[in-house]
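Why predict the complex rather than its parts? Because the way molecules touch one another can change local conformation, and only a joint prediction can capture that. The input here totals 296 residues.
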Amino acid sequence: MNGWDELDRFLGTDPRDVGCEKAMDLLHVYVELVTRHPEAARRRYPGIVAHLRACGPCSEDFEGLLAAVSGTAG
Amino acid sequence: MAADPGLGENQATPASGDAESAEWLRTLGGAGVEREAAVERLHAILLRVAGNEVRRRAPRLRLAGPELDDVAHQAAADALLAVIAKLGEFRGESRFTTWAYKFAVLEVSAKLGRHFWRDPGVRLEGEDWERLPDRFGFDPAERSEWHDLLATLRRAVDEELTERQRQIFVAIVLKGVPTDALAVELDTNRNAVYKAMFDARRKLRAALVARGYLDIGTSRRS
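Output of the joint prediction:
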């Protein structure tokens, strides 16, 4: 990825993006669905998918909770 | 940002019927020795989750052994208080433990955000615009290709953004301040910082598109 692509990606916004508050409110529900049916999770929660793609801190929390639920951390 | 898209009619995936979750609710909502034992067991679980989460993030942190343990213990203690205080808000949309783990993970995030400012080398003042090409991975050898684009971006930051949006853009993009750390410094929350950056990104992209830069950039991509 070159600088043009990275800048374009960084400035891009998805109107479906629900923001941190709503994404975190449902994170536990989303994570459990991801562990069972990843495709269904993406279809059911496009607003959370859009947010996690753009928000580094929330994406980090998602990865952390996914690791905890999956028993892969530590 | 969307008010509620992507959530719609399927907000809940009821899982409240599982016996383990019901048992947690019963014992934590009870009294006496049984409740104390449940609280102790929950704390041990949250401490394990927080410890694992701190270690998972450790390679990207400027923290070492004892500090990491402190963060894990503080996060577990605060997560325990939050879970107990919000027990009545558990809606049974997931297993109880998944819901509780979330508090531990979020507390770790919050604690690490505060830790960022303990580094005396970190300052919010000043603007390092020279950092911009490197931030987005522009090749110095192709400076003539991107110089005008970044000059236009800088002008748009000055002219299009509100003072608050500009302050947040400069801190995150030019100074590399993490969102959670910036939220602490500005006495706000992650959602408010993200919303300001979301609006700033949208304005800046529109400004660059209006001047033909991103379209030109797309055609120049190798």
